[in-house]
Design a protein that fits this description.
The complex is a heterodimer of chains A (317) and B (255).
Chain A lengths: L1 H15 L6 H25 L7 H18 L4 H23 L4 H21 L1 H4 L14 E2 L4 E2 L4 H23 L2 H11 L1 H6 L4 H27 L9 H14 L5 H21 L5 H15 L4 H14 L1
Antiparallel strand pairs in A: 1-2
Chain B lengths: L4 E10 L2 E11 L4 E5 L6 H8 L7 E6 L2 E2 L5 H6 L2 E3 L12 H8 L8 H6 L3 H17 L15 H13 L5 E5 L7 H16 L3 E5 L3 H7 L2 E6 L2 E6 L1 H6 L1 H8 L2 H4 L1
Parallel strand pairs in B: 3-8, 3-9, 6-7, 7-8
Antiparallel strand pairs in B: 1-2, 1-4, 4-5, 9-10
Helix pairs in contact in B: 3-5, 3-6, 5-6
Classes of the chains: A mainly alpha (317), B alpha/beta (255).
């Protein structure tokens, strides 16, 4: 009952929130919502102990797939978004064969190389990927009405509501997976793969499972992005964006479900409100690098460790 | 009648070094079988081949007459052979209960769709019961919520066995289970192993603690420098001249 009340308050706050901020900040809210799904799905992969540098490119696979099936085949956009997620998951499944012959640092480098190959393919093949200029004029979400509210997707507020519902649903699924025996097995694979295997766990298939699920949700995030901004190109998913995702995850901490989400929210607020007010938004990579180094030095367990300190103290009282 | 486990001409070469050389022995169902030998005799290598961690260079491992050598470790585990590791190899960052729950993986296979939709309640409850009863068996009942890494050494060894036992294997391979235990802990652990055996689990153990080995085993295989040396009951092995020579070093030459 108490939980239900908390979630009801959160939902009301999210409905009110976009009406309190400026138009450009409403756009930022949409991006923030999508980015939350990207980092949360990234965390699922890190549960098995593997860090990828291809996550953003996989997100791009979802974006391209959804953009193409809606534009070229005229598929209904919400279905296109699902196709985007499924395509990203499928590409991840194919990539898992070469990539999971490696572990740790080698996997990291391998995933980066795989991502760059995909990006080069987008650049090289103007048909159907549009080459370096990418795809323009991607179908927007069709407007619809749910009685009390008219969704008009030229308004960022409407798209914020829509993406918030989709992302919330995805987060709920990710949460259910993490708290299930499957999630426990992911942890087991991470911390002691030998003992896990001796307990009958097929390491390869669990690593692949985590990679495929994480990629599927990244693909949905990419598709949400594509149908919002309407134009995507290979550089929207380059390694610079990947570094932002890594920074969110590391600064937030990957020990808990909310850690990376917290990192994403805090750094986005810092970037969009503080830096923009100061007129320093062009220095974002510089500042992010500084924050990353400082947080590794002084806050190795991330922002979540600060939250945990407070919640533990409350429990002790 | 075929033995539960049979090792035929098992050989492992690492480059020019032959760690295990043409080893043969059988483990009978319901027995506690000891594998002893001086340091570097190849006992752990033999374990690693039986459990599928290494692929033998030559020879076979048969479980109930079926060849299992060369299968990956999780397949061997699914056939009913579960191992523990030297030192305390545990999920140190997970709770004691979660450690035991990982041990139930084979019996209660996680299903991701059922997990998302909440349809696996019964399996989760059964896995929990199984994990709790394994912990209870090894005297860890009150420590469920502790982190495995925070336990005392004796408790960590017990937890390692509880994780293995949680899958209810036919054969459990214990790699030096008594290392670093005091005599009291050793005595307790011996009692637990006898109970385990009485419940129908066959045990194969590598151990240096001769008191434990002699007090526990029905049958002992002794190896030295990778080769089979002697086999028999505790009293035979204790008085076997080759075994005495291997451990004490060339009594004949001294004499």
């Amino acid at each position: 009952m108490r939980n239900f009340l908390i979630w009801a308050v959160v939902a009301v706050a999210l409905i009110i929130l976009p009406n309190l901020v400026s138009f450009s900040q409403q756009e930022v809210l949409v991006f923030l919502t999508i980015n939350i799904l990207v980092v949360a799905s990234y965390r699922l992969l890190t549960l098995t102990g593997e860090w990828s540098l291809g996550h953003v490119v996989i997100m791009g696979v979802g974006a391209y797939a959804s953009a193409l099936v809606t534009k070229e085949l005229g598929l209904w956009v919400p279905l296109g978004i699902l196709v985007g997620g499924a395509s990203a998951a499928f590409i991840a499944f194919l990539l898992s064969y070469p990539l999971f012959r490696m572990k740790g640092f080698y996997f990291l480098i391998g995933s980066f190389a795989a991502g760059e190959i995909i990006r080069l393919l987008w650049k090289r093949f103007r048909d159907p990927f549009g080459g370096a200029k990418g795809i323009k004029g991607i179908d927007p979400m069709p407007d619809f009405s749910i009685g009390i509210y008219q969704f008009d997707f030229f308004e960022p507020v409407s798209y914020f509501y829509f993406s918030a519902v989709v992302v919330a649903l995805c987060l709920w699924i990710l949460w259910r997976i993490e708290k299930s025996p499957v999630g426990l097995t992911f942890h087991a694979v991470h911390w002691q793969d030998k003992l896990a295997q001796a307990s009958g766990v097929n390491l390869r298939s669990y690593r692949t499972l985590a990679f495929v699920i994480a990629s599927g949700f990244a693909g949905i995030a990419g598709a949400l992005l594509a149908h919002y901004i309407g134009t995507i190109n290979p550089n929207s998913f380059d390694v610079e964006v990947m570094v932002f995702v890594l920074t969110w995850a590391i600064v937030g901490g990957t020990g808990t479900f909310y850690g990376p989400i917290l990192g994403c929210i805090v750094l986005t607020i810092l970037n969009e409100i503080v830096l923009r007010e100061l007129g320093l938004e062009q220095t974002r990579p510089l500042i992010y690098g500084l924050i990353l180094i400082l947080s590794i030095l002084f806050m190795p367990n991330g922002l979540e460790s600060i939250v945990q300190k407070f919640t533990r103290r409350k429990e002790a009282k | 009648m075929t033995s539960l486990l049979e090792v035929q001409n098992l050989t492992m070469r690492f480059g020019g070094l032959t760690a295990v050389d043409g080893l043969n022995f059988k483990v009978e169902k319901g027995h506690i079988h000891g594998l002893i030998g001086p340091n570097g005799a190849g006992k752990t290598t033999t374990f690693n081949m039986i459990s599928g961690f290494y692929t033998p260079s030559d020879g076979k491992v048969l479980l109930n007459g079926e060849e299992i050598s060369g299968l990956p470790m999780h397949h061997v585990a699914n056939r009913g052979i579960v191992r523990t590791f030297q030192h305390s190899t545990l999920f140190g960052e997970l709770s004691v209960l979660d450690n035991a729950l990982v041990g139930t993986h084979m019996t209660f296979r996680p299903n991701i769709f059922a997990a998302i939709l909440g349809l696996d309640g019964a399996a989760r409850r059964n896995a929990l019961d199984r994990a709790r009863s394994s912990l209870e068996f090894f005297g860890l009942g009150g420590l469920e919520d502790e982190l495995a890494g925070d336990l005392s050494h004796g408790h960590q060894r017990a937890l390692g066995m509880a994780v293995a036992y949680a899958s209810r294997p036919d054969l459990i391979l214990l790699d030096e289970p008594f290392t670093g235990m005091n005599p009291e802990e050793t005595r307790q652990m011996m009692g637990l192993m006898r109970r385990l055996c009485a419940e129908g689990t066959t045990i194969l153990l590598v151990e240096h603690d001769m008191q434990a080995i002699m007090g526990l085993c029905d049958n002992i295989t002794c190896m030295s420098f990778g080769k089979f040396l002697a086999e028999g009951g505790p009293s035979e092995i204790r008085n076997h001249p080759d075994v005495i020579e291997a451990y004490l070093g060339g009594a004949r030459h001294v004499a």
